[in-house]
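(Protein data)
===
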Amino acid sequence: MQVCTKASQLIPLWGKEIGFVPTMGALHPGHASLIEQAKAQNDFVVVSIFVNPTQFGPNEDYQAYPRTLQADLELCESLGVDVVFTPEPAQIYPLAQGITLQPPAFLLGYEADARPKHFEGVLQVVLKLFNLVRPKRAYFGQKDAQQLLIIQHMVADLFLDIEIVPCVIVRDYDGLALSSRNAYLSPEERLSARKLPQALNSIQEAIIKGERDSVKLVKLGLEVLQGLKVHYLSVCDRQLAPLAQVQPNQTLILCAVQVGRVRLLDNLWE
């Protein structure tokens, strides 16, 4: 396995059939599932590990974000990754004022309301990484549903010759969607956080039994989430427009809650 720290080291990779997994490190089994899927579908796998400063707000956890590079490299090697790209910020942002991209208004709201400029930073770094790695396919988890939709829109709008591969949410023993920020939860907070997947499970069970009314489904979920600070629980389509009724294979149920200092996201794709 090769570890690259400079953008120029990626040039010899161009032209290969590359599966790319962009990460911010602190890798967990959810990341491993992305890497395994990339490994199965491509001749060559590149993983980036870069905590991107432009997607953090001034009061967010950029400095405190978990950094476990040695363990991350060991995991990547064990999974058969070919190249890990671990740049310093100056490699990704060589100019004092860089170009930014604005997501379309219809894909904003939700996380964009809570984290202004977040998705601008995401698009900025993802496009840069795509240009440096030049993958055939790139792998993103469905847990960050809004991010996934925005990246798919960017790829389509800018005619990027890259297939975006959505990957199913990987959950821990207690149903909580795997996230690097789960490490911030105390044992007591972890117990409270379990209400999030439980609420979505209750909604899914109701849908299976035939309930389609969005108001009733949201009410059901909020009952399970009592005691937590709920930022949003919404039934929408794949362009984030609210839906009055669940539409099969077109519906996205988004939820974000605050547990202690940790903001947790989860969702259902129906």
